[in-house]
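In this section we walk through a basic example: taking a raw amino acid sequence and producing a predicted 3D structure, encoded as discrete structure tokens. The instruction is simple. Fold the sequence below.
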Amino acid sequence: MKIKPEQLNSFLQNGLQNKQLPSVFVISGDEPLLSQEATDEIRSAARQLGFNERETFHVDGRFDWNTVFNETNSLSLFADKKIIELRIANGKPGDKGSKALCELCEQLNETNLILVILPKLEKSGYQSKWIKTLEANGAHIQVWPVSAQQMPRWIGQRLKQHGISANNEAVRILADRVEGNLLAAMQEIKKLNLLSLEGTVDADIMSTVVADSARYNLFSFVDQILEGDAQSAAKALRGLESEGTDPLALLWAITRELRTLNKASQAVAMGESKDWALKNAGVWDKRIPLFRKALSRLSPAHLRMLVHQAGAIDRGVKGLRKTDFWSEITTLVLSFAGSQTLHPKNIKLLLQA
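The resulting token sequence is shown next.
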């Protein structure tokens, strides 16, 4: 079955009342905050039913599915139920993975809860046998990005949840500042909450609070990359490193724009105009000129290489390969920003690591 994110809480509460949850949950979508929140809700409900152990597997093309079957068939030393968490970063388990997921559904039992976390699936993914099998045996929560039109309402609701009163102008200022990034919006809302402000937050207060946001500096850094200003981007990167910026947050911010550009470049190759391709890829109207400039500067092949390079760095952060994060992220940033001293052929060794 398919469940909307806003229906998940009531669905889980009903399961807790009946003391039974589906054995399979699937979360798909490219909005990190909403995906993480859905994941946390499911884990919390499962813990209340005795699923106190959790095993996480990061699935790629070389993944050994026997490790999952061994885990689902093994008995816990303390007889606790287990959450088997499968993170498939590219949303494509491959032939072996597709078969394995279907087999897992044939072997479901009350001691294991299968949680599959995916990015936004392509049309073929939604029609695949493995996703339909997972849906038939459990619940699929599809997470969709919050649009520019929906953002002020979403922010307003989150402010109320945190006990913060803000007028419409203040909400619009925050929505404009974070430009669709829900993680950045929540960081600012938590900051407002910590300040324990009395009365209603107005435009002046909101502008003051979010003006020096580190997350906003991260956005400015990404804009410098899109602008093609390699020197300023490299300087900003050193500053972010010295400030202790979370490597995963930094990589996420870069990878998000790379995927957007890669998607748009494919559409342009099929005959769409750049502006229309960027709009369909989810770029906000006022940011289209910036993305158009990057799209004109970077060839489709270069963009694909950058996406693969970001994936290699991500594997390093997760401990799947040896990595010098700040050195490799610098190479990625300079190449993304169009540094003439870097060429795709000079970075192949990184991808082979």
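Looking at the output, two observations stand out. Strands lie at 2-3, 24-28, 53-59, 82-88, 112-118, 138-142. The longest helix spans residues 247-269. In the next section we compare this with other chains.
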